[in-house]
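Researcher: Here's my situation. A collaborator sent me these components and asked whether they could plausibly form a single complex. I don't have experimental data yet, so a predicted model of the whole assembly would be a useful starting point for our discussion.
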Amino acid sequence: MGVYVLDLAQAYMDTSVIIGQAGDFLDDTLKYKNIEYMTCGPQNNFFPDLSTTSRTDIIFFCSPNNPTGHAASREQLTQLVDFARKNGSIIVYDSAYSVYITDDSPRSIYEIPGSRECAIEISSFSKIAGFTGVRLGWTVVPDELYYANKVPVINDFDRIVCTCFNGASRIVQAGGLACLSPDGFKAVMAVVDYYMENAKILVDTFTSLGLVVYGGVNAPYVWVHFPGSRSWDMFSEILKKTHIITVPGSGFGPGGEGFIRVAAFGRREHILEASARLTSVHLL
Amino acid sequence: MSVLNHNHVTPLSSSSSAIFAKNTFTSVRTQIVSVSSKKAGVCKCVATSPAEQTAYKTKVSRNGNIAKLQAGYLFPEIGRRKAAHMLKYPDAQVISLGIGDTTEPIPEVITSAMAKRALGLSTIEGYTGYGAEQGEKQLRAQLASTFYSNLGIEEDDIFVSDGAKSDISRLQVLFGSNVTMAVQDPSYPAYVDSSVIIGQTGEFQKDIEKFGNIEYMKCTPENDFFPDLSKVSRTDIIFFCSPNNPTGSAASREQLTKLVNFAKDNGSIIIYDSAYAMYVSGDTPKSIFEIPGAKEVAIETASFSKYAGFTGVRLGWTVVPKELKYSDGFPVAKDFNRIVCTGFNGASNIAQAGGLACLSPEGLQAMHEVVGFYKENTKIIVDTFTSLGFTVYGGIHAPYVWVHFPGRSSWDVFSEILEKTHVVTTPGSGFGPAGEGFVRVSAFGHRNNVLEACRRFKELYK
């Protein structure tokens, strides 16, 4: 049984390795055996070419995407759902950044017809409400999702949740409920907007340096292309010259080589300071 | 909650594992089914809708390990029985001495610390994002000095978590499917169930009510609730809970020394569940690390649940000593750290603030008082059953009373007590085949409820 991973997705991969789905790591390709890596880059509008993708049982798909910032379109997600249904696969759709979407890209996989029978959706309050340390999220497992032998997936997920877990902290759940009140939601979305304004500043900054920039519109991540450079070298260069910490793209998988991820979280003054430093040095 | 069926007939026995038909979450809902507790009874089934029969299904195979489990996890099953009973008797004052859930309010020194941390998150200075997955430094240090000073366990041996239940499964993921494991029989169901899920076991053998490839170490009055290790086969992992849930028995220093030596001789790893350590009276050991040599053979898991009423707050810790190595010399703690960093993101910062307050002098005293209160409850229950002529075990070093009903099915006794006194207990066979003939009465409860329950027991069994 194999797992698809959007090339660029550490936790999905590492947990797959730990649980025993993957084979050995191959030093030449920098990939684990038995994981299907679906390359996502500017060349394919950050959506995998499904016609060249082999069938696997599970497909991890994160949109809006960490680290590329790309939000899959309705057409793309329809293709994905059709692909999953045709292959009898299950999509695990990570929608942790859905509240950052500013255009009309789908916010949930369940906006796509047929998805309830082939998709699980995971999400989190981390980036919605600053709950990265508070710890709260949720997973949707539709009633309509069945294994090949007609057992509902939700039965087994419930068993896992009841046996390997004892629930999220009730204090934290109270916080989650408050996030979803009219006032609460308005307040957290104001912070989301604040981060997206940061993202715009970063997009503009890197663009003004003549670089091609992706993301930053539907997610708080800016994916900067440094063609011909190794991402770890660019990471070091940026760190040395501007004292700014970014994340080298190759850290997310081989498809990330040549890119740097810049996160838009941070105080406005720090973002502005970072922008000022970036425009004042010669990076390339 | 309701007990549901999905178009199949399950023959029932009085064993815990087979008694409940699988509950499902299909579109057929809210049908209460009365479940016979006699052997070879039959569940009434609810028909599935035609839509379900032709519904789209994926081509993904169900995880065969989860399929090995016979029924739901024990405590939600008890909850379902309780809910069904309350529907049947809407006016009954049901008293729950079943699921071991704390009832007394958390001392204010602890909740105010959590409130302060929570409100602090709304300030620039007080806001914190992702914390260290292993836990906040101050809490780790305080855990080391509070519980493990003089035992050679250090701050960085301690991994803070969202509770022992989660840690047990994290440890299973750590060890993987190719290890063998031993459990006490009876034992807290999470050890066996998580072992099944991760793929360490064979199928459930209905005749003996055990999973294949697990070594069940019988713990009964005959062996003073400590296994005869001369009869126990070697396994890689040995789960050992002391003070014990459900029997209430606490292993002595001599017994634990035998266990550590046994593990050492066999090159095994003990996972020592110390969730009830604070309930220990006298100088019975509280930590496995009190035993010489334990650091090289044992992991200890612990929890704030039963000390601070944190069952819903979710905070615990696991100790993996540096000295614990795999057969190739690789430190177990390094891999556990990888699991914690990859499959987890740390316990809630708010809960950790509560944990730190628990370990302040005031907090410790407050926890001791709450533990003392539950121990008084335990004594009341012990005295009640003893006065009725029952043989009673446990109840000294743990908030559990293990009552013997010789010759009777524990599910039958559970049902009888529930039906006739409206008190929820837990059938011993739910914890393993050697639990048959016993019922666990937990001592968590408001004092008036415990007294009332005991009054009802006296009525029933006079």
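Model: Some features of this prediction you could bring to your collaborator: Chain A touches chain B through 49 residues (CB under 8 Å). Residues 8 and 253 of chain A are 5 Å apart (CA to CA).
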